[in-house]
Amino acid sequence: MGVANIIKELRDSIGMSRKEFSEHTGIPVRTLEDWEAARRTPPEYIPRLIAYQLKYEELIKNSANRIELEAVENEEGRND
Predict the structure, then answer these.
(1) Which residues contact 39 (CB under 8 A, 6 or more apart)?
(2) pTM for the structure as a whole
(3) What is the dihedral of CA 56, 60, 63, 64, to 10 degrees?
(4) How far is the C-alpha of 3 from the C-alpha of 36, rounded, in Å?
């Protein structure tokens, strides 16, 4: 799989447009367009960094959701 497809799949995996993804990652829209169209190739570490960032954000979100759920369950337990 080429770098262009990897970048596009990472963006698609979180359901963002190029503009949204650009704002989220700090990568200019034109650069994303060029990468996804394979007109330019990013350094090989860039897709890995983006993937790590997205995975980290997912882990933080899941952790926050779990903490919130535990708090609700604890509150419900006290009200029984």
Answers:
(1) 33
(2) 0.76
(3) -170
(4) 8
